[in-house]
Specification:
The complex is a heterotrimer. Chain B is an alpha/beta fold. Chain B has a single domain, classed as Rossmann fold (3-Layer(aba) Sandwich). The longest helix of chain B has 23 residues. The radius of gyration of chain B is 14 Å and the shape is globular. Chain C has one domain. By secondary structure, chain C is mainly alpha-helical. Classes of the chains: A mainly alpha, B alpha/beta, C mainly alpha. At the A-C interface, helix 19, helix 20, strand 4, helix 23 and strand 5 of A face strand 1, helix 3, helix 4, helix 5 and helix 10 of C.
Amino acid sequence: MIDGLLIGLTVGFPVVTGLLARGLPGVWSRRLLVVLTTIVLIVSSLLLLWRGPYTYTLPEFWDEVIVVLDFILLFYFLYLGFRIRHPLVVVLTLLQLVPLAYFEASLPVIHVEPTLAIDFLAIIMCLIICVIGSLICVYALSYMDEHEEHLHLAKTRQPRFFLYMLLFLGAMNGLVFANNLYWLYFFWEVTTLCCFQLIRHDETPQAEKNAALALWMGLIGGVAFVASLFIGYYQVGNLGLNSLMSAQPAAIILLAFACLALAAFTKSAQVPFHSWLLGAMVAPTPVSALLHSSTMVKAGVYLVLRIAPALQGTALTSAVAFVGGLSFLVTAVLAISQRESKRILAYSTIGNLGLIILCAGVNTPLSMVAALLLLVFHAMSKGLLFLGAGIVENRVYSRNIEDWEGLIARFPLISAIMLVGMFTMFLPPSGMLLAKWVTLEAVASSPAQWAITLVTILAVGSAATTLFWSKWMAHLLFHPSTAERAKREKLQLPYLASTITITALDIAVSVIAAVLVAALVIPTVKPWYAVKLALPLLNLSTGIGAFPIWPLFLVMAVALALAVMVFRAKGGKLVSPYMCGENVEGAPASFRSTADLEFNFDASGMFFDRALGEPKTNRYVTAVGILLTVLVFALALVV
Amino acid sequence: MLHMGNPKHADILLITGPANRRNARVLKTLYEQTPEPKVVVAVGTCACTGGIFHNCPNVLGGVDKVIPIDVYVPGCAARPESIIDGVVLALQKLAEKRVEEEA
Amino acid sequence: MDGWLLSLTVAVGLVVAAPFIGGILSGIDRKLTARMQNRVGPPIIQPFYDLLKLWGKESFVASRFQALLAFSFMVFSVVAFTLLVLAQDLLLIVFVISLADVCLVLGSYCGRSPYSYLGGRRELLQMLAYEPILILAVVNIYAATGSFMVEGVFKLGFPLVILLPGVFLALLIALPIEARKSPFDISASHHAHQEIVRGVFTEFSGFSLALIEFGHWFKLIFYLALLALFWVPLLWLGAVLAFIFYFIIMIVDNIFPRLTWTFMLKAVWLAGFTLAVSNLIVLALLGVGLAWA
């Protein structure tokens, strides 16, 4: 009873409330629906965690429903292709529609036992989607009001917006539960649709253009998915992901996995396909937060993690690792050159997804643990950073981080949240750094010869990562001491609730990361790999290294308390910065120059435009990415 | 003894010229940016009283017109020995000030 | 139990002794520099007097965060060294060291001062230069010993430098950065060179500056200990050699001009990076390391 109910609540409920939010008039009904969905989703995902893994088979009737819905969806894509006059969309949709029609004509058995398989990986994903994803929806309640006020819209577009936001959550839950490849494919396409609709939400020419880009790139993944569906059905005999996983790894089965991996790369915006995620930045910020932290791109890495155990020992798995490695390296370096806050975050997302895919490709017990840790902590930290960035954007009216200079003085609370978010992205002892540490140890200890290349990539990439994050953190702190005290900023309740909850969650889960590892990560990895992980006193020990998690947090907390106490006792006089004595009174950022003229001291932010300027580098990156992807896949399938 | 180009790290300010309308502001800022305990040494007649410039329209006179001075080292130019003597005197004053502050 | 207690005592002793050694080293440094410039120079224990003096000075801050970040820099430098003497995970130690550095950079950005801003930028570039080298060095140590723990080095039974001469050289190339010495002293202009006033340190004064100086001693000793680790059963030889290398670097500091950051990045990356990576490749090809044997 509860099994079916939980699936209904996590997959069906957000779809229903989404449709209601679209249909019902009035602001308050919408707000109520979103808050209700949030509560239901969080509670049911926790219940799912309590319930543990199980499988569930739906009657065949539902398979028919999914097939019908899928064809409706594909025809809708076709219509969209004609409406936005995009030949690629039309061609790619036809490439799915025609084979599927042929497939249906041959009267296949769609039904698979079980339809849905909820294992620990699915539970982890479900928790991320339901907790982080729905908090982002709550945040969107305030954000969209401010956003539409800013755009001076005559008629609100929020009903449509929340329809797709909530639909997205439902589809993602369905995606991670599905064992039937056809179901998986259907939910996959629904997320593509939601993504397209949310990116074009503002209906500016730029938004329409970037949405189309996201659509056709997503459809490439759809085509690859259909190919693997075919191979799977005709080679294995049914559409079960579990039977595909346990099939003999012949070359043709590997081709199916390669197609799935390709689909995952399009979804996770790995390097030749990275432009859609950068383009998606035109969407309102809650959309970006949702795409980057809990849905869409996470569907790609989920799929790679799902199929990784079946790839152990094949050449394909190395190929996957290299594609991920390339994405990590390239985006870490390119992120240095970015001025726009959301683009930096986007590059960092692609890089971290690359890291997860790299770990899945390395395919050792330890690397899988690393991948799962990255998955969880990235969702929290990145979600938080996007939420913070959105709030700042609505206050400063700029996404350029050069305009965020000294934000700590103007908006201390939201700046502090941003700083915590950035801290948790790359500095010890936060969860992300713990995950990166496991990654490095896993890659270094992996038996393959190419581990050296990957380790080198990781070393360079981490240094670049440190540079762009600390640069940005420094920017926020960069303000004159004697500037006027900040007024207390007022943040609406949804803003406060969402950001503070995620911050607290992020820190708490970081501190008890060992519990997370014991309760969710090890059970996920165990069925497929022999994990040799020890958790002495809730610290992490990999057998070749050890990470004291909470002692470091304890030291940090004590140091903070001590610092505050010492400086309280010592006192501290705020003085103006040293400018050879030529400070201007009342304007702490200015100095007097020749003829007593006042000059404002402008500082630029180290973007290395000449070396890393985007239009130039992007061409090379795409070219190299395509070349490498084709090359590694060809190699992997030939070998 | 280290030569510091930064008032925030300095103990002794050594001033070698007269105060004028342009640099009075600079002198004041630098003096304020030097953390206590600190000692100011005026080196040379110009710094002490304005010297041969004392009649110039833009010159205010000695540095003591702008900030308090602890040690005067006269001479035009001040001899190296007397500068050293002045700094040693300043060191004594610095030690006294520290004791005072602690008390 | 006794062995455990002994190693803890040794660890505590080393952590307590580190700042004294660090202070005396920087005292010797000043004396040596003075003698090379035909001056008498201060007494060897002058750095301790300076530290006490800074402690007693009036406390100026550029912002509340600055004081906090100075404190964090000191704490994490100490933590990194403590983890090292407790024979903990080397990779983690490298990350903690970079955390300390990030704190310093962030502190230098507080206050919007042109000079400390320039210093902060250059400090970031210095981190960019040596961080990959440190990470690769740790991976090399793993490849040679089969463990990321410092313990592994002790269990090896023969000096690490036999297997990792390239890495040792790479760390030597990066040493001037960490020790803030020419030709790579681009971010702080130590001693009395005053190109960007005092770079990252410009806006720190009094108590915060004392904290940073204290942390810097720890970092210096940490780095020298890392070099000594390469000689492990002959730890005394390693320690002696590390000090000798430090003195060589002091002399280099006095002879060489400071170079531009582009030169630093190119030199450290080209030479250090190549050395570290080729050492790793050689280990893998020969199959001599314990990790991949």
